Amino acid sequence: MTDKNRQRNQAIVQSRLEARNKSETRFRLFGLAMVGVAIIACFMLILSIFFQSLPALSENRLVLNLPLDAQKLDPKGTRNPQDIRSQGDFAGVVMDNLLLRFPNAEADGGYDVLSELVSTIAITPMAKQIADNPNLIGTTTPFSFALNSDLDVYLKGGFGRAREGQFRAANLNVISPSEIELQLSENQKLVYDGLSQASQPLRLDGQVPSLLLFANGGAFKVTQIANGRLSATQIIPPKTALAATNQAFKSASIKMPEDGRAIGDNMIAYGEILQAEGMVKARPNFTLLANADSNDPEMAGLLSAMVGSFLTLCVTFVITVPIGVMAAVYLEEFAPKNFWTDMVEVNINNLAAVPSIVFGLLGFSVFLHFFQMPRSAPLVGGIVLALMALPVVIIASRAAIKAVPPSIREAALGVGASKVQSVFHHVLPLATPGIMTGSILAMAHALGETAPLLMIGMVAFIADVPQSLVDSSTVLPVEIFMWAGRPERAWEAKTSAAIIVLLLFMIFINIIAIVVRRRFERRW
Amino acid sequence: MLQGSGVDLPVFSQLPVSMIAFLLLMGMALFGYFETLKASNTLTRNLRTNSVAGQKPMRPHSLPLYHGWFRLLCTLIPGFGVLVLGASIKPLLLERTALSNLPAEISSLPQDQLDLFLLDAQKIAFGGIPSSDTPQLQEIANIMASTSGMLNLVVAVLAIALAAVGFYWSKGKLSVDFRARNKVETAILVLMVAAAALAVLTTFGIVFSLVFETAKFFKVYSILDFLFGTLWSPQIAIRADQVGQTGSFGAVALFLGTFIIMLIAIIVAVPIGLGSAIYLSEYATDKVRTWVKPGLELLAGIPTVVYGFFALLTVAPMVRDIGEKLGLTTSSQSALAAGLVMGIMIIPFVSSLSDDVINAVPQTLRDGSYALGATKSETISRVILPAALPGIVGSILLAISRALGETMIVAMAAGQNANLSLNPLDMMTTVTVQIVTLLTGDQEYDSPKTHAAFALGFVLFTITLILNVIALRVVQKYREKYD
User: Do A448 and B303 touch (CB under 8 A)?
Assistant: First the structure.
């Protein structure tokens, strides 16, 4: 080799070095970017659900001090809980009280809005309380009611509720009992989302954002804006007459046009006034954990689904763990190495990768129709999930048993134990932490499983907490699936909150698994 | 096993007799256990006291514990055997009795009405809400109830009698050289084999139920029309005599939808999963690894219904808004949204398996490559990846199989309409979604709709099984090579 050759080669290497180093950096950054994307996706998933669930943490309740009129609640006068529940006009009592505040409602059409404030189901707790304590009748007792879910969503900032504005009117004309016209004072600013072309007269129909005005306990809806001059119709009459000059107003602007939302401007006006006067109060929301499912989002909770999940998982655990451990012990310690045990092993590995929905089909045809088991029952759900979790438990248990060093077995056999004794007295206790960790993780997976349970009818509306293994019930993930499909806006937050509850349960189970592993696992 | 746990509704409502038999059996078995334990202890003690001084005392072959267990098993096995057998043949016997007692005008009814009649009678007899209530039904229900009561009694008495035989027979077996331990260990072994067999049985159950129902479907619907037909509208005609009363089950649109969504998911998951696996195993410091790896695996632990909700409420509107900004018509549910989220879901399947196989590539290969002057990226792309390729392909196949079988994401975010389209912004439906749609809600069991769901399930099962078998074999074979 000549020096010339070497120099030429060196020159070639040198000239390519920069490009190679660059491509090295590119490659490395690509890997980093991919890790970043994965982490960001993970965060986005959790954060978006977390933020969507926030509105469900509090709820707005209508608080009323109700005089409990005996005539209305117990027309027969028997004070018998049965009679009170069936005959009492609870909604009437609530309505009478609301009419005290809005005496004109019956005349101006506000009656319908008021009757929608509290749903029939939301009144049931009060009915139950009174029926259980009939001597409350005749007293004046404070009650609180879950508010209409759309109004609740609005008051929490839904439908584009804007920050409230304030201004003073330079002059004000009452055109007719239900219409006013007013001029904005100089340098008073109007907070309104639709105010882009201020010079032109703007008609506020259902297609543009709404603007509501509040003064002296009354509410008005703006119909036209032109050069700082507002025309408005009255929704709720003010308590005292409005001043002709320098009248102070509060305003609320709702970004989503009235035609596009489930809640009307009238309902919003009532809601704003009730909130301003302290009759609607926000408080922490426990319905999610305390109630069973309901068609009204304001009353729906997860109690029945949580109990259903618990019962189902109990069945799964009781079936999977003993059978899985026994199968693992047999395959790892006793099975002869031949074609058949190989087949069993291949079979178990493949079973672990079969789509979960196929197990649902198995449950549907074998358990529901061949064995005629009840639909929607935690028992059947538990068995289906057990079959699904079985291969996972077997694989995890085998790994744990395999990790126990042969010296333990040999020592046991050496002092005269039989094979079965060496396994059950020595190997299995040492493998228990690993087996438990694997089983607990399999349970966590079973807790989140949805598809197979849809097949066996656990996707039903269950308003009662299941009492036994054959009662109709549903489970947390299926409840989430059902809630996600319901149309009202309030379900979004509810569903997100339900997901948070499910994730908390899963984290809890995983923490148990980690603790078991950390505390009891032995490294050999 | 399943029937023995008293699952059948008829068994349930007649629980007391069976319950008493069960408790009696348990009582007998426990009593026998402790009695033999005590007797066996006494035997050992007597042998010791009677032994000649200076000689080692004689001991029974088995420990007292095993004698006790032997007695317990001898009592329980025949007793429970009879109970389980009784419970499993009871529905058959009941139906026989009911059929033989039917009045002529009922037994001449067509089969489906007859089945309904029997079901109603069963519901009246054992609790439940029957669809109708007539004196004839009441009569048959009474007969069924009394027969069932009698059967329960017979089974319970028989069970206890057989258990008693075992109980007394095993009492006499206690002796110095009776090999109780071996018998008990055999019983344990049998139990373990049965447990292992259950896993196989599950596979058989899946295959048989799928094949059986699919065969029923192909009896009324042509297999070619199913596999190659393009119109999917499973609505059954309202009148029984209507033309084309089976609906239309051309599944091409479903296969296409499943394939496209899977493809989107793989396009998302493979670069991200593989890229992270390479970065984590070759570049990242140990500290980064210990934090990021569990983070990625967290994605695998999140329930699929959560992904579905995320796709429905966050990703689908995002896709729609972006599509509209670009001037594309996008439906609120789209294959793209479902595919993207599914891709995120299967990232850990690609990354953690790939990570394993990349780590399994021996260090000598890397060192050899560095010694030749290759940079790290050159080593990875020209040495490590080719060496790990079979394993990586295996992990991708597993991820594909996972994506094909995924249900909740597509059920929530991809839509229900069978749309023969290649545009990922359209609504699409998949095999799994249609299985769910066909089988949820109220419908009778023996209808083409139900059977069609099983036919779809059969296709899904077959394809995923083939993928899994190949993938597992490839991954395993590859691992052995470098171990």
Answer: yes
Tokens of B225: 């029309």
Question: Looking at the structure, do residues B347 and B466 belong to the same domain, yes or no?
Answer: yes
Q: pLDDT, tens digit, for every residue of B298-337?
A: 888 899 999 999 999 899 988 888 888 888 877 778 889 9
Instruction: Report the percentage of chain A scoring pLDDT > 70.
Output: 98
Helix axes of A3-53 and A490-520: crossing angle, nearest 10 degrees: 120
Give the end of a domain, one of B131, B154, B178. Answer: B178
Interval B32-84: pLDDT, tens: 999 999 999 998 888 888 887 777 778 888 888 899 999 999 999 999 999 88
User: Cβ-count burial of B442 within 10 angstroms (0-12 exposed, 13-18 middle, 19+ buried)?
Assistant: exposed
- Whether residue B233 lies inside any domain: the answer is no
CB distance A62 to A119 below 8 Å: no
Task: Provide the angle, in degrees to the nearest 10, between the axes of the packed helices B335-360 and B448-482.
Answer: 30
Domain end marker among B178, B193, B219: B178
Nearest-Cα distance to chain B for A68, in Å, is 40
Does residue B108 fall inside a structural domain? yes
Contact A383 B2 (CB under 8 A): yes
Q: Is B56 helix (H, G, I), strand (E, B) or coil?
A: coil
Q: Answer yes or no: is B192 within a domain.
A: no
Q: In terms of residue numbers, what domain contains B123? A: 9-178
Is A484 touching B (CB cutoff 8 A)? yes
* Assessment of whether the complete model's pTM goes beyond 0.80: yes
b/e per residue B389-409 (b: at least 16 CB within 10 A): ebbbbbbbbbbbbbbbbbbbb
| CB contact A344 to B (< 8 Å) | yes
- ipTM value, please give it: 0.85
Statement to judge: residues B158 and B295 lie in one domain:
no
Q: CA angle A453-A455-A458, nearest 5°?
A: 50
Output the pLDDT for position A310: 95
CA distance B223 to chain A (A): 20
Same-domain status, B23 and B126:
yes
CA B365 – CA B379 distance, rounded (Å): 9
Strands A280-284 and A140-146: unpaired
Regarding whether B257 and B171 lie in a shared domain, the answer is no
Based on the structure, what is the number of domains in chain B? 2
Show the domains of chain A with their CATH numbers: 57-152 (no CATH), 158-285 (2.40.30), 303-520 (1.10.3720.10)
Cα separation, A291 vs B209, in Å, equals 39
The reply to whether B370 falls in a domain is yes
Same domain, B261 and B360: yes
